[in-house]
Write a structure and sequence with these properties.
Layout: H1 15-21, E1 26-29, E2 33-36, E3 46-47, E4 54-55, E5 61-64, E6 70-73, H2 76-83, H3 95-100, H4 125-153, H5 157-171, H6 184-228, E7 234-240, E8 247-253
Antiparallel strand pairs: 1-2, 3-4, 5-6, 7-8
Length: about 250
């Protein structure tokens, strides 16, 4: 019969060895077999179903329907609106609303790179290298085009806001102190200047639009003329048939 060893005789591994042994700990997941306790982090993210915001790993809410379709939500706000069956295109804080109302780019060559492909691509080392290089370049081009799109969309905002402010001041003169109120003559003068400015701007816009229409029509006409006109002009001449029995037509290039 083996005798139990005293407590001081049991070898105790050092702390570094204990940490090394406890590093790979496996836990039992319900219905999924064995899995590591701390899986390696990843930078892959999926767009949210409701607002299209990025949902990173271990973040957000995932709802799986009875037909096995999964819905990812970035926060509880999107989840609640989804359960209330609200339309994302009618809520101003969603990406679909912004695209539907012309506030973001919808048609651009840089957006096609992020589309989903159903056919897998065979691994190629050179292809992977060129793809990684192109990813940064495409993001730079997209950011530059988004800035240009935003500037073009906000181009007339300052002028419109200034006109609205002037109109508000003119209509509410009684709220201003007496020293800052305008006289009737000044009010009439400001109104006349505003009307002339708006009329001139309208005329300029009409002229520019008409010029574009004329240029488009001219380009279309030139294309049609090039298609219809033959490349070489031909003449029809008459020549005597072999044997001297009558004449026949003959095409001759100039």
């Amino acid at each position: 019969m083996n005798k139990a060893l005293p407590p001081h005789s049991i070898p105790i591994p050092p702390s570094s060895q204990r940490r090394h042994e406890n590093r790979n700990v496996y836990v039992r997941c319900r219905g999924h077999g064995h899995a590591k306790e701390n899986p390696p982090p990843t930078n892959a993210h999926m767009p949210g179903y409701f607002c299209s915001s990025p949902v990173y790993p271990s973040k957000g809410i995932t709802f799986v329907r009875n037909d096995a379709k999964s819905f990812r939500f970035c926060k509880s706000k999107c989840h609640k609106n989804f359960k209330m069956k609200r339309n994302p295109r009618k809520l101003a804080w969603t990406k679909s609303f912004r695209r539907a109302h012309g506030k973001e780019m919808t048609v651009d060559s840089t957006l096609t790179f992020a589309q989903r492909r159903n056919v897998p691509v065979r691994y190629n080392r050179d292809l992977v290298q060129t793809t990684l290089k192109a990813m940064g370049r495409v993001s730079e081009i997209r950011a530059r085009r988004e800035r240009a799109f935003y500037k073009a969309r906000m181009r007339g905002n300052k002028q419109r806001q200034r006109e609205e402010d002037r109109k508000l001041v003119m209509e509410n003169q009684h709220l201003l102190p007496p020293s800052e109120r305008f006289s009737k003559e000044e009010l009439e003068q400001h109104e006349a200047e505003a009307e002339t400015e708006t009329d001139v701007q309208k005329v300029k816009d009409k002229v520019a639009a008409r010029r574009k229409e004329l240029e488009a029509e001219e380009s279309e006409l030139s294309d049609v003329e090039e298609e219809l006109l033959p490349k070489t002009k031909t003449k029809r001449k008459m020549k005597m048939k072999v044997g001297g029995r009558g004449v026949e037509a003959m095409d001759v290039d100039e």
